[in-house]
What we know:
By secondary structure, this protein is α/β, with parallel strands linked by helices. The chain has a single domain, classed as Rossmann fold (3-Layer(aba) Sandwich), CATH 3.40.50.2020. The protein is 46% helix and 14% strand. The protein is globular, with a radius of gyration of 19 Å. The relative contact order is 0.15.
Amino acid sequence: MNILVIRFAQLIESYFFLMKILTIKTFLMSFIDFASPRRCEICGVYLGESERQHEFICEDCFDKFPPPIPSELIFDRIKKFYPGEKIIDNAYSLFPATEKSDIMELIHSMKYRGFSRIGKELGFELGKLINVNPNKIYDLIIPVPIHHARLRERGFNQSELISNGIANALDIPTGFDIIKRARYTQTQTQLTAQERKKNVEDVFVPKKVSINLSGKNLLLVDDVFTTGSTLYHCAKCLKEMGASQIDTATLVFVGS
Length: 256
Ligand SMILES: [Zn+2]
């Protein structure tokens, strides 16, 4: 029995040690991101102080990204996987892409190399795109939440970074404490479409039962749109909390 207790204590100790290492790693990555000379994340060219418009990509590479796709194409994808009730009202995405596109390199650098400024800057670009459509006034910008264990692993939620960029462009408040993930889910990247749907079903819940979103127009934000499963289930939770209309905004729309 005592051995079991000791083993358990050792396990807990190892866990906290690992968490400490991960926190230090995140801090170091952010510091390197802040202090190192800037190079284009795509072609590697040095970005001089004076001419650079973005902190992480040269203008040549930025201009090569394809233009945004119409909302209807994003909706076709949502309808394909969720033909029933309309949960999402409108959808924006900054770049169409494939898994091998250069833009995915940027998303990878943001998520796994701690280049947080990529999220804020591309979020600002996404905000400018949404601003072209002045019909909708949003009450809140809500990022898709990540599980607290993943937050500890990564050190930040990339959807919050993007949301901050959009908020700067649109001058709308963000709501980071509205919903949460009830359980830790496997990353969607390696899953089939059906597995993705199952993986995120009922995973989003209100952060507090007292939150009421009656009559609110929301902009729901994530980094990548693939099948739309994560956004759909997140939006479903927000509608159950009373939200009136929900539009989605993603940096990338991954085509088939
Ligand atoms: Zn470049």
